[in-house]
Every structure is written in structure tokens, then in C-alpha cells.
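Anyone else keep sequences and C-alpha cells together like this?

Example one:
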Amino acid sequence: MDLLQNYKGDSSSDDETSSTQMEGINSEPRGIIMPLVNIAPHVVVSRPVQQAAVIDPKTKELYYNPKYEELFMPNVGPSNPFKSEHQKAPKNTLTGFVEPAHFSGFHFDRAIRSYDTLGYAENPSADAGGSSSFVGDVQSAHLTGGRSLFESAKTGGQKGKEL
């Protein structure tokens, strides 16, 4: 406003009319006064920072190194009261828990076919520390010496002389 009042034009009559008009304008700014509203109020965190994170037991990959207590915590959440102990057991397949084993397909086929045909097979467990290293009909396994289907056994008697 001061700049407009100090502006001097060519005619002096314009200055008088503009200065009288300028004095009539109120120079106080007016605005709407609104109450102050805090959109994001301060929130007190009820969970402590040091609380352990819950790890899903079905997770195969972890992105940080958890402590032993965090890794083997009991499962969180409600449990089904109608499940039996067998149903509550940890499973990685629909029918139960399968341990990882490292042996070739040939040895697996040999064991499964021997078990189906002969009724016994070699115990594939590495920690099978017992009196028997066979699964199934142990007596039959001891009588045959633990032979599988792929191991040949002598059959028949001596051959006759050719004439």
C-alpha cells in the first residue's frame, strides 16, 4: 500500500483522488479464525520395544538372526480343543512328519521292492541303533542273510553232466 501511495504519476489531480481512495481502505488483514485441531495426536505405545517378534513355524527363510528363545517360543494364538494329540503334532506333510534323507533313487527302489516282495528291507535310518538293522519280517531277513531282490542267490543243485 505504501508503494501505491508513493507512486507519482504525471498529473497531480490523479494523486489527490487516489490518496483519498487509499485512505478509505482498511489495511488490517482479516481472516477466518478456526479452532486448532491436532490431526495426529501423540500416541503412547503399549508394546515395549524389546518384545520378541513372533516367528511363523512354517517359515523356511529368516531375514535376521533370532535368539534361541525367539526361535523356539510356543505357538501363539488359540488352539483347537477338538484336535487329538496326534492331530496337534507338528507336520510337514498331510499324513505326518517326513525327515529329510539322503540316498539315491536306486537304493530307494531296491528297498521298497524288497519290502513289497520279501516282507523286509534294510532300515534306512542313520540312527537305527538296535539289534536289528531290518524293517518288517526280521526273522525272514536273518534266514536269508538280508539279501535283497537285486542280489542273486544260488538256486537248484549241481548241474548234470552233458552227454
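And example two:
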Amino acid sequence: MRKSALAGALFLQLVPINLAFNQGMAGETTLTQSLAVPQILIENDPELDKILFDLFYDGNRSAGFEGIALPQQMPSMSASPFNAREFSAPDASPQPVPPSQSEMPPRRAKSTLILVQIDGLGYRQLLEAAKQGRAPNIAALIQNGQFQAAAYRNGIPTVTQAVQHAIFYGKLLPGNEWYSKKRRKEITGNEQELELTEESGILHGGSAYLSELSGGARTGADVNSLYMKDVRSQGTFLAILKELWNGGPLFLRYLLSHNPFVSLPKFFYHLVRDAWTLRNDFKEMGFNTEMDKKAPYFLSLIANLWTPIAVEGLKKAMRDEEPIAYMDFPSYDEEAHYYGSFSSQAFSALERIDKHIGELVETANQYGSRLLIFSDHGQTPTENFIKKYGKRFAQMADEALLQTNPASREGELVFLHVYSMGNIYAANFPGHMSLTDFEAGYPDLIQKLAAHPGVGMVAARDGEAVALFGKNGRKRLAKTGEALLLEGQDPLAPYRDEMATDKILGAQIANYLDIEESGDLVVFAPYENGATLDYNHKYSIISQHGGLGGDQMLPFVLYNPASLPLVPGEWLDARGLHQQLAALLKN
């Protein structure tokens, strides 16, 4: 789930362009209360009436979904990338269709590299959406032979900030949030990024939009890290003004480029309609946490306000010949969390994203820019740990600690989830705790945790090796992933697939344990019958990502080999993309 730099307060993005509101956002004021939706008066003009009706009515598809059979085993990374001839060409006549290779304009000396992230869209979901005609512009890129699509390994954890950090800086993070023993508090990837130099990020000299991390970019709009940096140096008020200054003109340009007499009413219509629909759906589905109640308004803002601003920002970067620019499309990921990754609602969000991508392709062709489209992770169906077992994972872990170590004190162990995995820290032990130390200080706790039905596997550091504990077996691995010892059933077996072999999974887990502030124990949720468990307690979601198992580990990359000769099959995790992009930018 994505946190915005200004959350609901960035309704004020509209202030610089003098859009009228009855009143600003305040407290828990609802969207319908705070917005003054303009009424369009049409007299004796049936043609305009029809145009507006057609524009406003987006032809929502049935909520039902009939899946097209997909191969049980995904192709290995060494196999040929997906070929668009596997599905029929969708009708993309209303959107710009990319020209063939021979029609492409020559790339300029100062060609901009545009990085477009579709948050949460897995490789299998991309194929399915293309087959259904729900992503015509993306499909057209592949069908004309110009672009190739391939799955890649993102590593763990499979969350946005961690994957972004690996791509931008070539370094792994423990998650979106984790516990710092040195600071004795929970910190986030945004805070961690503030300690890095801009020059170390791959976006240095460029811009970023609608992103958790800046990647070293100094300019952009709705970038959490940049906003936090401005708050620290200038205060909240000036930081908000700067955000308005950066985003307002871009939104104005979006309105003007799409006929403001149509785009402005359409904006208000979709803003209210989307929030209202989500709000009603969440009530019916019983999603009632505090974050669930705020999510409909936030998701509507993402799709209708922040996304157009980000798209215009990328267009500006191409016009200005910036070396590199990045944006994230979060809408598909957010819809998929609540409705499912193959749902009609999620694919409808992807359709809207695809239209924006059509605009970006057209601008890239005009200015000779290079385009890379990718996702950070996929999603795996999930059940919430709290709903299944009636308590939070941290409560269960505390109970297990008291049962095995009655003399233990409250707060001795700290648990922070990464959705379908989690970190357990011995708060008073400096640095990483070895398996020997942990078993001496907390005897039988690892076995107690591993035996719980809501746990699939527990990982710990065992000297220069990695120890894995399952319900009916344990395994010792070298840091390169090779098995050193297996007793009983293999704890890795449920997570294994063609792209995630034992050696690959072992190396990814070992790399995660090498992160400075990963937990003393790392807990992985079970993966059974294509689904996993979610340890989070803030959101009510049915599809998630974070740990091991299924589509959450299978994002995609869509690239032009002629201008971006990437080799996804060589990547153990998202740092592989960083290394190849850094080399290309350097040359």
C-alpha cells in the first residue's frame, strides 16, 4: 500500500489553478462534502450532451471474470521473452499506436530515459490483461516487434520501497518499515533515503513523480522523500507550497491539453464517482479499519489527480531533455489489493494506465526518448492473519515467548511485518543475533513459532550459513544458496517454482539476512494452494505481496533491446536492473 507525501491535504494541488471548492479538506470531512462539483448546463445542444455522456460513461465491465488458461509453469528467464503473437491485437484506435521500428525518429544525443513503473502488475497478469484487450497500447508495443516483455526476479522483500531502493541505489532494504536497534525506533525507506547522497541514486540529474523514493532526483512532484526533506529543512507550510508549485502547473497543462471544457468536468465526475464506488464496495466487503475508511478518497486522488500530474511531468522531462525521469502508476496495485490481481476492477485501473502510457509512447516517439516499462512486484492471494487466528502476529509471538521463556520481559522482542513476512528483533542485543545466541537466550522459541499454522518458515543466521526451520524439517544453506544439510521435509519446497529454485531462494534469503537492519529472525508466511497469509493489521486486503510464494515474486520488464539491451535472466533480484541501467547511463 502506498503512502502519499501529503495524503488528503494535496487536494490543495488544485489551488494554484483556481479550481473552486466549497471548503478545504478538514479532519474527516468526506469527499462529497468538501467538493463543489460543477453542474454542466446544456441547452438545445444534444450533440455536446452525447459527447459528455460518452466521455463520462466509461462502460464499466461486469465484475465477473472468466480466466484464460495460462501455463502452470512460467517460462524460465533463459527462455525467449513473451511474444505478443500469442494473443490477438486489440483495437486501440482511440489511443496513439506506436510506429514500427522503421518509422521511429532518430534518437537525439540527449535522449531522455523514461522509467515507467506499473505498481503491482505481475507478469501473468500482464499477459492476461493483454489477451483480454485491457492494455492495447502495451500490447501494440510488443506486437510490432519493437519491445520485448519478460518476467524477472525482484528478490525479497517484494514491497515497493525495497524494490525501488534496489533499482535506484543497488542496495537492499528490509521492507517499507523496519526496526532500527541503533535508533531504537521504527523507520521507513523514506527516512533511510534522506541519509544518502543524491549523486548515489540513478535518477540524479533527472526527476521523479508519484513515488515513494526520489532515487537521487532533485525535482518532481508527489515524491515522499523530497517532501519529507523539505519539511525538515523548511517546515510543513513551505513544503506544501513547494508541492503546489511543482504540481499545479503540470495539472493545468494536463487540463489544457485535453480540452478543459471537457476534462475539468470529467475530472470532478471521476473523482467523486470513484471514491463513492470504492466506499460502497468496501462497506459491502466488510473492510472497516481506519486505513480502509480513508482509502477510497486516497485511491480516487491517485487515479484522477496525481497520475495526470506525473504523466505531464514525464512529458516535460522529455521536452526538456532531462537525462532520466521516473514515475509510478499505483492505481492497479491498490485496486488489486482490495479486489484481486485478476479482477475486473484491477484491469479497469490498468486500462486507464494504458491510455496514459499511450500518451507517453507518443511523446517518446516525438522526442526520440527511450522508454522502459516495468513493475516492482506482482500479487499473491491472501488471507489476513488476524481474521484467521483472532490476534495479531506480534501477540502470538509474545504468547509463544512467555510459554517458552516465562522470565522474559515485555518489549524484549519487537516484531515488524512486511505483509507476508516479518522481522523479529531482540531489541537489547546489539547487531545481528546468531542462531546459537538466540537459542541460548530464547530456548525453543524458534520451534514454537515454526510449529504455528500461520508460519511457513523461520530463517536465522548460523555462522556463515543460513538456517531454515519448517514444521517438519530444517535446512542449512550456504550464502550462495547451496544446501549444506537437510533434516526431514524441506522448508523451501512450498515456495519453489521454475524461476525460484532452491538455490535462488536460498541466495535471496541469505542476501536478506545480510541487510544491516533485517531481523534476528525472519518469519515467512505459509504458501499453500496458491495463497499466502498477511501479517498486516492496518488494511483489509485479499491480495498482497512482501514475502515468498507465487505471483508476488514475478514482476515484468518491457524494453526495447535496440536502445536498452537488458538481460533480465541474469538478475537474482532488482539490483540486476540497477547494474545494467547504471552501465547504460554511464556509457
